[in-house]
């Protein structure tokens, strides 16, 4: 299948992105009552360095968070 707007294809095809991050919520998080029990989201990258950089960024404290806010997310490095 061809891409209708090739200028929007900024990432390599999914089959070429081998390094990923699985994002999920801890079982005790209230968010898990709103989604399926096994909910997770995967983000894929072409290189290990890109993945590691994104993992560090995702795991850092958000600039606009309050001092008492604690992120409730589980980040896991994965590979195909």
Quick structural gist:
With 80 residues, the protein is α+β, with helices and mostly antiparallel strands.
What does this structure look like?
- The protein is α+β, with helices and mostly antiparallel strands.
- It has a domain at 13-26 and 39-58 and 72-80.
- It contains one helix and three strands; from the N terminus they run ββαβ.
- The chain has one helix at 48-59; strands at residues 19-24, 41-45, 74-79.
- A three-stranded antiparallel β-sheet has the order 2-1-3, with helices on one face.
- The chain starts with 18 loop residues before the first strand and ends with a strand.
- The model has no long low-confidence stretch (mean pLDDT 85).
Number of strands: 3
Number of DSSP helices?
1
* Strand numbers in spatial order across the main sheet: 2-1-3
Helical fraction: 10-25%
Summed over residues and divided by their number, the pLDDT gives a mean of 85
Q: Structural class from helices and strands?
A: alpha+beta
Based on the structure, what is the oligomeric state of the protein chains?
single chain
Give a short account of the largest sheet: 3 strands, antiparallel
Helix and strand sequence: EEHE
Primary descriptors:
80 residues, alpha+beta, 15% helix, globular
Topology record:
Elements: E1 19-24, E2 41-45, H1 48-59, E3 74-79
Antiparallel strand pairs: 1-2, 1-3
């Amino acid at each position: 299948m061809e891409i209708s707007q090739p200028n929007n294809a900024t990432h390599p095809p999914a089959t070429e992105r081998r390094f990923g991050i699985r994002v999920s919520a801890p079982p005790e998080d209230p968010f898990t009552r709103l989604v399926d029990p096994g909910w997770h989201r995967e983000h894929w990258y072409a290189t290990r360095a890109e993945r590691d950089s994104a993992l560090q960024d995702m795991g850092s404290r958000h600039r606009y968070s309050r001092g008492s806010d604690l992120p409730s997310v589980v980040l896991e490095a994965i590979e195909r």
